Amino acid sequence: MEQLATDSPSDDLTLIVGADQALSFGNWRRPERIGELATVAVAARVEHDVAEALAEVQRATHKPAISFDMPRIDLSASSIRDRIYRGRSVTHMMPPAVAEYIEQE
């Protein structure tokens, strides 16, 4: 975030997080600084309360977060990492170039 803000100081940055991650925003590294650099947008996740997530982000950053409507995609980085760890395919979960990069690295 710091680098993006430095590289493009006139851009308005938005950090999009799922409600599941937003609920622990106070445990993130320097959440107040994240709030200074970007608007935090919270996306709905299965079994997670968006209103609670918005409140947690505001508590941690001292700035209001926003929610937005989008088709819900029940896919998490944790599930992708777990599949990779178990040697299972993730090609159907992301663009081919991303899957290729993960495989190479």
Task: Describe the protein's architecture and organization.
The chain has about 100 residues and is of the alpha/beta class. The chain contains 6 helices and 3 strands; from the N terminus they run αβααβαβαα. The longest helix has 12 residues. About 20% of the residues are buried.
Q: What is the arithmetic mean of pLDDT?
A: 91
Which stretches are poorly predicted, pLDDT < 50 over at least 5 residues? none
* Total of helices: 6
- Percent of residues in helices comes to 40-55%
Question: Rough shape?
Answer: globular
Could you give a quick summary of the protein structure above?
With 105 residues, the chain is of the alpha/beta class.
Main features:
3 strands, globular, single chain, 105 residues, three-stranded parallel sheet, alpha/beta
Chart the SSEs and their pairings.
Elements: H1 2-7, E1 13-18, H2 19-22, H3 31-37, E2 38-43, H4 50-61, E3 66-67, H5 77-85, H6 96-104
